[in-house]
Amino acid sequence: MNAKVREVFTLRGEALKLGEIVGQGGEGAVYDLAAHKNHVAKIYHRPLEQQRIDKIRAMGKIKTDSLEKLTAWPTGLVCSKDSKPIGLIMPKISGRKSIHHLYSPKSRRTDFQRVDWRFLTRVAANTARAFAAVHDNACVIGDVNHGGVLVAQDATVRLIDCDSFQVSYLGQQYLCEVGIETFTPPDLQGRSFSGIVRTPNHDNFGLAVMVFLLLFTGKHPFAGRYAGTGDMPISKAIEEYRFPYGANAAAVEMARPPSSPELAIVGPRLAKMFEDAFSQRGTSAGRPVARNWV
Ligand SMILES: Nc1ncnc2c1ncn2[C@@H]1O[C@H](COP(=O)(O)OP(=O)(O)OP(=O)(O)O)[C@@H](O)[C@H]1O
Ligand SMILES: [Mg+2]
C-alpha cells in the first residue's frame, strides 16, 4: 500500500527521503534514509491503529542506554504528507545475521567465522542480556522468534521488531498480540493472543528455547520421539510438558531424537535451568529469568 511513498516527515515536519529497502516483514518495509546513515524508517503496509501509534510514542519516552545498545528501539513516528503516522524511525542495524543462521548447522559454517562452544555461550548470554534489558523496563517481547534476534561476528546481539513488544508506560499497557508456536509457553499454547497480557515469565520460556537451539545445533527442545499412539507435534509436547531431554522423559513417553546429545553436555547448572524452564514448575513458580542465563 505504501510502496509509492518516497518521502516521509518527522513530527517536527522535517522531510526525510527514503532510500533502498533493507528488509521487509509482514507488517512493514524498512528503508534506508538518505540523510541519516545510522537510522532507518519502517513504513507499515497498512494504516496504523491508534494503539500502535501511542505505543511507538511511549517507546520513544522509555528509551534507555541499555535498550539503545541491545535493541533497535524506535525513536519516533514518521508521517505522510498529510500528517498521518505511517511508520517509525529506529537505529539502523547492520553487519548482523538472524540468530537462526547461527543455530542451524548448514548456515553457521558459511555465515559465522568462528563458531565454537565459547562463541555460542556468549551469544546465549548476550541474548539473555537483551531480554533482561527489555524486562527491566517493564516491557515484554511477547513474540519471541528467530527473526527478532540479530547476531554479529563478535557475539553481540540486537533485538529488532521492537514495535511488536508489549509496552507499559504511565499506567497504559500496549499489547503484543502475536506469537510463534514453537516459542510459546505451555500456559499460552492453543490460546488466541488477542487481549492477552504477556509476562516476562512467558518470554523466559522463549528465551530458554532459543538458548537450547543455540547449544543443541538447532534442535528444538520439544522435538523428540513419542512412544505413545498418534502424533506429537512440538506445540502439543510443549503444552503437555513432554521434554525429551529431561529426567522425566520416559515417564512422559518421550525420547531424544536419534544422534542428539544428552542434556548433561551443557553442564549441571544449565541442565537444571532447562529442566526448570520446561517443567510445570516453571509455569507455576517461575522459569529462570533472563539474567540467570547471563
Ligand atoms: N533497525 C533495523 N535496521 C536494519 N534492518 C532492519 C531493522 N529492522 C528491521 N530490519 C530488516 O527489515 C526486516 C523486517 O523488519 P521487521 O521484522 O521489523 O518487520 P515486520 O514487518 O514487523 O516483521 P514481522 O511480520 O515479522 O513482524 C527485518 O527482517 C530486517 O531484515
Ligand atoms: Mg513486526
Descriptive keywords:
294 residues; alpha+beta; Phosphorylase Kinase, domain 1; Transferase(Phosphotransferase), domain 1; 2 domains; six-stranded antiparallel beta barrel; three-stranded antiparallel β-sheet; 13 strands; 20% strand; binds adenosine-5'-triphosphate; binds magnesium ion
Structural write-up:
The chain is an alpha+beta fold and 294 residues long. It has 2 domains: 7-66 and 73-91, Phosphorylase Kinase, domain 1; 97-293, Transferase(Phosphotransferase), domain 1 (Orthogonal Bundle). 30% of the residues lie in helices and 20% in strands. The protein is built from 9 helices and 13 strands. The strands form 4 sheets. It has a 6-stranded antiparallel β-barrel. It has a 3-stranded antiparallel β-sheet with strand order 7-8-9. Helix 5 (117-136) packs antiparallel against helix 6 (200-215). The longest helix has 20 residues, at 117-136. The protein is globular. It starts with 6 loop residues before the first strand and ends in a 9-residue tail after the last helix. The model has no long low-confidence stretch (mean pLDDT 96). Residues 25, 27, 161, 164 line the site of magnesium ion.
